[in-house]
Structures are given as C-alpha cells and as structure tokens.
Amino acid sequence: MWSADEIARLCYDRFSELPKRGKPELGREWTLLAAVVKVSETQSLDLPEQKKSEKEVVSLGTGTKCIGRSAMSPRGDVLNDSHAEVIARRGFVRYLMEELRAAVVGEGSRVFCPGDERGKWRLLDGISFLFFTSHTPCGDASIIPMIDSQSQPCPPIGMEEGTDRPNEVPGVTDGDGTLKRRVEGEEGGACKRPRPDTEEEGERKEEEARSASEASAEGRCSPAKCSTADPDVPSAGGLEEQARDIRRTGAKCVPGAPGDPRLAGRDYHSVGVLRVKPGRGEPTRSLSCSDKMARWAVLGCQGALLSHYLQGAICFSAVVTGKCPYSLPAMQRALTSRCAQVTGLPAGYELPPPQLLQSGLEFAHSHAQTERSHQQGQGRVSPCGAAISWCAVTDQPLDVTANGYKQGVTRKALGTEKSRSSICKTELFRCFQNLLAVTADSQLPQSLRGRELKTYWDYKQAAQTYQQAWLQLRMQAFPLWLRSPRNLLLFH
Ligand SMILES: [Zn+2]
C-alpha cells in the first residue's frame, strides 16, 4: 500500500536528484511537477497474507508553457504543450515503448507479459501506475470555490503549519493580524473579486486571467480564502456550496461552447466545459490538463500508437495532488464525472476511474513557495521557461526543452534532428517504428497486418479499437474537443 504523502515525497526526491539544467531559480522562478509512479505489489515471503509494494518514479515532467497555433509544426518535431502533466505522460509513453521493446525481443520486461491475443501485451499481475501532480490541473479542476477563513477546516495557506501564526508573507496580514485577501500585482486576477464588466474592464480582466491562469493551478492563491487541501479533512462540500467566490482560470472555453457568464462572484465561470490553454498572445489549440486527464481516464495514457500492442488501455489507478488550492468535488467533476456516463466502449476500455487523493506536502518550487522565499533584488517572480522530461529509459533519459525544442539549440539548428525533444511526436513515432522493426512477422498485432501504413496519421487511424473508444468518448462527452489539424500529422 502507499499514502499520498509517500508518493509526493518520492516524486519530489526524484526531482531533487536530477541535474540543475532546466530547473527553476530558487526564490525567483516557479514551475509545476508531474510524474508517473509504478507500483509493484508482490506477496511478502515472510507473511504470505500481506502484500509488499514497491514504488518507483518511471516518468517525471516539469513545465508551465504552451505554444500558440502558429508555432505548431507539420513535422511533429515541436512540443506543442509543455505543461508538466503532458510532459510526464509523453515520457511515460517513451518508457512504455522501451518496456514493450524488451518484451517483444524476449529480453524480459518488468512491466509486460503476453496477452490473450497474438501480438498483444498486458501489464504483469500486481503492476499499476499512478499519476502525481504538484498542483491542481489547469482548466475545469481549477475552478475552485473560495471559502471564508472563518469556516476553514484547516489552516489556510500562509499560516505556519502547526501554529496559528501567519507566515512572513508580505500583504497577507492586516494590521490587526486578521488574514485578508492578498492584494496581488499584475498576475493577481484570479483572486480578485470581480466587479461588473465594462468593456475596458473586461479586457483588463481577460489579460489578468490569462497571466493568472499559468498560476491558477499551481499554488498561487489568496492565502485567506482558498479551499486549502488537507488529506485528513474530507471534502468540504457543504462549505464549498456556501462559497461566494471562485478561483478563476485563464483557460477559455473551446470554440462552440457556451462561454463563461463572467458574472460577479461564483457565477463567473461555466463548469464542466472543455477549455483551451492560454498562451502568450495568440490562443493555443491545446486542451487544458483537466480535459486531457479526463480523456486519459477513459482511453488510457498510452496513446493510439501503443494501443496496437496492448490488450487494453493503461489507465492511472490514482491521481495524487500535492499541497495547493484543491477541491475534491472540482477534481471529480473535471476528471471523472464528465465521462462517467459514457457507454459502448470496447473491451479493455471500461476501467474504473482513478482514485483522487491529496498530499499535505508542497513542491519546493511551487508558485506559492517561490513567492514566500522570494527576496528583494531577485527580480520578478516568474514561471520557469524550461520543461524537463526524465523517464526510466536506458538511453538519454533526460530531455530539457524550451519553447518546444531542446533547450540551448541555436536558431540555425531549429528544425534539425539535433533540436528535437525525445518526446516529440516524431521521436515517439520513430521509437514505435523501431518497435515494429524488431517485431517478428508472426508476432505482429492484427491491426498492423497486411496494411500499407505510412504516416503518423495512418498508424494512429489504424488503431481501430482505440479509435472506436475515442469516437464514443467524443460523441457522448466531448463533442467540441479540438482535434489537431490533419496536415500536422502527415509526417513519416
Ligand atoms: Zn496544465
């Protein structure tokens, strides 16, 4: 068995062990962390009735950025979405590819064993994966009721743990020591009480919301008012219903969806709606992490390519979140309830939704923690521009990118092989083709037999069972999901 704190600690420690490259500057830059943890349960030899479980981080990601539409590449060589959750998932796919390769060539995998059908593999008994994120995912899950400090079930952020003394956070306490909403700078839109919109006001708020959105999910909050998480305190459902205001997200509703009402207080946002990530300036085509994680909970996180080789979806058994503003009802709504009614899924895709848990341990580089340790003269607190991917593979496990390409590549080298991240579409496709190349004809999965497949798009479309599940999910839960333009998927 495991606890949420144990998982958080494991992921934070793994992060600390990584080299400095791509890490945020302490006290000035913040970032988000996400990871995939493998849990292996075995029967204890001494006590056969007890299970022993080993936990291992197999993929880890950091990052806060997302590129705009015009920077997307038809060669599949740029990372469109570098939010930590997405980076962690892509690294996990890379890890799974390597494990599958080991299984296919008979070197023995620590994860897979032959499935029932020829060419298909399944997870070994006792193996499961869970997802860790240092913060509430952006988008729908981040629309969190804010609760008055008087009725807080646990010490609000900004209080020293274990005391009733506020931390030394500028602007947190009033003269008389009562907590008040922090007056935030230009990024503070998320926590400001909305006023009736005038046009100018509306634009200003939009700008605020956009910059705040990068912060909204990762621990920045008004210390007095947010629904602070505590793993020991069950969801404050009743309190949340009484909340007069909500934390806001800068992720806009997808085109075609009824927009946010933008009314004062708790009626500012629509809830349960697909949202796109904000970018700097131009809009992105990337769905929010809440939406992507809801999709992974049904289709698995292995993606279409790997599904050719797998007997069913690989879903996370749990999603553990670090200490940050958090609402269990909002997480449930965003990650599981929206897809709970979907029926007609093919065999292997009807898996239970992930368990949702929160740890009381905070990431040392969270936005809130960075604000607390920031010192004068250090320069403005800002999100770290780099994204780190690390996964448990033998060759080059570490991959640091900025703006979707390897960090530090010269402008001249952009677009060359050297500039590509090892988790971009092209590279994962290359790994997949290597897997195909080492698969004996007699062991080829049925969906790949006797077919003339060339492009990335072809191989994804040929994954019939996965595509069938995706179609059901889209039709029943996410009809407005923004799909990648086909011309960006025709590389080979
Ligand atoms: Zn995100």
Automatic annotation (TrEMBL):
Pfam families: A_deamin
Catalytic reaction annotation: adenosine(37) in tRNA(Ala) + H2O + H(+) = inosine(37) in tRNA(Ala) + NH4(+)
Residue stretches of biased makeup (Basic and acidic residues): 194-211
Classification via PROSITE patterns: A_DEAMIN_EDITASE
Signal sequence region: none
GO biological process: tRNA processing
Sequence ranges assigned to domain A to I editase in this UniProt record: 59-491
Region (Disordered): 151-266
InterPro entries assigned: A_deamin (IPR002466)
EC identifiers of the protein: 3.5.4.34
Keyword Oxidoreductase included in the entry's annotation: no
Keywords from the named record: Hydrolase, Metal-binding, tRNA processing, Zinc
Cofactors demanded by this protein: 1D-myo-inositol hexakisphosphate
GO MF assignments: metal ion binding; RNA binding; tRNA-specific adenosine-37 deaminase activity
PANTHER family noted in UniProt: TRNA-SPECIFIC ADENOSINE DEAMINASE 1 (PTHR46516:SF1)
Family designation: Belongs to the ADAT1 family.
Entry function: Specifically deaminates adenosine-37 to inosine in tRNA-Ala.
Official protein name in the record: tRNA-specific adenosine deaminase 1
Lineage of the species this protein comes from: Eukaryota, Metazoa, Chordata, Craniata, Vertebrata
